[in-house]
Specification:
about 100 residues; alpha+beta; Trna Endonuclease, Chain: A, domain 1; 2 helices; about 20% helix
Amino acid sequence: MLLDGTYEVTSNRESGFGRYDIALKAKAPSYPNVLIEVKHSNDLASLEKDAKSALTQIQENRYFAEFNANGSTPYLIGLSIYGKHAYLYDGETVQKA
């Protein structure tokens, strides 16, 4: 796998008050940890709202608790997907992909 040397990739693990979708745990302190929640949108118009909802879910359910216990703060990403369209939301900007 492409990230094997740099990250430990986990999914659907219990953390905080629920289970996150994807976590990239850095094997070296110079790399950021990343936590991703994924939503499936019902239409193109819902992509941005759903990406923001995914990030809110991470924050409200404290999925990052596992990282904080280890003394790190992960980069949080809400991702929504509809067909071949996707939006990423990091709390500041929405990225259309």
